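Bug #77: duplicate submission created two jobs. Keeping one. Sequence:
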Amino acid sequence: MRVTYRRQTNKVYWTKRWADIPADQPMSNTDVYPLKFAELTVQSKDGKILEAGCGAGRVLRYYKNRGYNIIGMDFIEEAVRKLKEIDPELNVEVGDITGTRYSDRAFKYVLAFGLFHNLQTGLQKAFCETYRILEPKGKVCVSFRADNIETRFTDWLAERKSRKGGFKTHPKIFHKLNLKKSELMDLLKRAGFQVETIYPVENMPFLYKFPLFRAKDQRVFNENLARKEGYRLSHSGRAIQNFLMRYFPEKFCNIYVLIARKSEEF
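Kept job's structure:
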């Protein structure tokens, strides 16, 4: 398990991140992360869904608009405030996945995209809490930052950018965890889950950091548009990315997406 450090706390980072952009529009592209994997998990309108770490709301609003019984939860108050402001009918609240207010077996599905790797402590506790609030045979879909060449390179770029900004040194403040596939699977199994599938995925390709490789209509970065449609690359960018992900997916994904099931008995 590798730790990524930054100059500010995780909570400060995400508060600023969500403060800087409007609440998300509902996602429109079911072929990209995270909606692609949410759709593989949520197979029925029966039962309740929890999106833990709903952020700016792109997945939460997609399912709410389609009549699903979904609750959003995030630990950043600013994100929750903006979502309630844009849609007062959204069921969204501030909460902590390591200790929720929900009863046992409250949900049929839990979606948690980019949440667990933000936990400096209590990671195993968070997976056990997720298990507790799922009904028997309920499913969880979780994404987690990978520990590989891709994320080490992007962390190096971030450090380099920080130094260019005049920060020669900075305290090692926790930012994110990076896990190998085997470490992530072990955490889920120890919590009691039966792992069904795990996917190496590129959320924001590292090539997207360079405007030359972005799709023409995303050349000028617009985070809300990219979050709605996916971080789309130009033709040359897609060719390079497809090559890397076809032949070296474990080395050049930036996240793992895992779908697991709670046992029937508990």
